[in-house]
Specification:
This protein is an alpha/beta fold and about 375 residues long. It contains eleven helices and ten strands. Helix content is about 40%, strand content about 15%.
């Protein structure tokens, strides 16, 4: 059993080689004209928002403001066998054929550069490395700082900047290699994890909880009524949120839906698809850094109650570099034993002091 608050951040520079080119040709060719028309209608040049600077910003902040006790380790590349647990062989063959090429894959703005397939293999493999670290007892928790993200990737299709479904590959590895019978995946990215839902929709051994901005926000899936099928009925839990939802709504969902679900499911391992685009800087929702800290604290408590603290975060979205890097550091600080600030409380004492200072000025004799 790992020491409490021991945490490893997994980071591998090979994932920086994923550098899609906005001017690359499309696959298949018939999409070229449609997408070019969409991009040309924008008032400013469109650049690929999922870029290597996301990870270098995170690493730079962690160098400027180290998290006490945090250790770093390199990642690894996933094997074809590991990827094939969640993706079809025909899909993998299609992606492998794009190694070394520049190409757009579909209308969901998913593209590859010459280094993208290698980077995606390392992203998925690094999520596996993080799972292995906690299941082997080398750390209580781990954070795979990876790209390209994964939760939109379906068994047979790349979508939403995602090639391989990193968190799903990691969950399937925990099942196949370590015998985990109950894996819980929590996805708090602003966008619904359609790929993760598809992969485990009929799997009773995976509880998938997804809180996200509701349709028609991309990708438009994740309806309240989507609860799984067959033996997996009841192990998919969607919580669609309106635009502007913030800390209070998210924490209410965690306390009143996620916690009872976890207590019922009793997971052997908890994985988190951690996107930081719910922060207001990304203009999708209104979750603060204190909100991310509070959600992390709840997940850490659940992991300690049910699975010896085994908790793994895998980076998904978040495109504003300040909120992304600060959000990741906030989570790591909580995992390493830092204090959890109460959302909505920061600034209240200062307001009360200012009110006392100004009160006499607005009081009649």
């Amino acid at each position: 059993m790992a020491e409490p608050n021991s945490v490893i951040a997994f980071y591998d520079e090979r994932v920086l080689a994923h550098q899609p080119d906005s001017d690359a040709p499309f696959l298949p060719g018939r999409m070229e004209r449609r997408i070019r028309q969409l991009l040309s209608s924008l008032n400013v040049p469109w650049t690929y928002p999922e870029h290597a600077g996301r990870l270098t910003a995170i690493r730079h902040l962690l160098e400027l403001e180290p998290v006490p006790g945090l250790r770093f380790e390199n990642g690894q590349a996933a094997t074809q066998e590991q990827l094939a647990r969640v993706h079809t062989s025909s899909y993998l063959e299609h992606i492998f054929e794009l190694r070394g090429k520049n190409a757009w894959l579909d209308v969901d703005t998913t593209a590859v550069s010459p280094g993208s397939v290698d980077a995606a293999e390392v992203a998925a493999g690094t999520a596996i490395a993080a799972v292995e670290a906690v299941l082997q007892g080398r750390a209580e928790s781990a954070f795979a700082v990876v790209r390209p993200p994964g939760h939109h990737a379906e068994p047979v299709r790349a979508r939403g900047f995602c090639l391989f479904n990193n968190v799903a590959v990691a969950a399937a590895h925990a099942q196949a290699a370590f015998g985990c019978q109950r894996v819980m995946i929590v996805d708090w990215d602003a966008h619904h994890g359609n790929g993760t839902q598809d992969i485990f929709f009929a799997d009773p051994g995976v509880l998938f909880f997804d809180i996200h901005r509701a349709s028609p926000f991309y990708p438009g899936s994740g309806q309240l009524e989507d609860i799984g099928v067959g033996l997996g009925e009841g192990t998919t839990v969607n919580v669609p949120m309106p635009a502007g939802a913030g800390d209070q709504a998210y924490l209410k969902a965690f306390h009143e839906i996620l916690v009872p679900a976890a207590d019922w499911f009793q997971p052997d391992l908890i994985l988190v698809s951690a996107g930081f685009d719910p922060h207001p800087f990304d203009m999708a929702l209104n979750v603060s850094f204190e909100g991310f800290a509070a959600m992390t604290g709840i997940l850490q408590s659940l992991a300690r109650r049910h699975c010896q603290g085994r908790l793994v975060f895998v980076l998904e979205g978040g495109y504003h570099l300040i909120s992304l890097s600060r959000g990741v550091r906030t989570v790591l600080d909580v995992l390493a034993g830092g204090a959890i600030p109460e959302p909505g409380v920061i600034g209240l004492s200062e307001v009360e002091a200012a009110a006392d200072f100004h009160r006499q000025a607005f009081t009649s004799e």
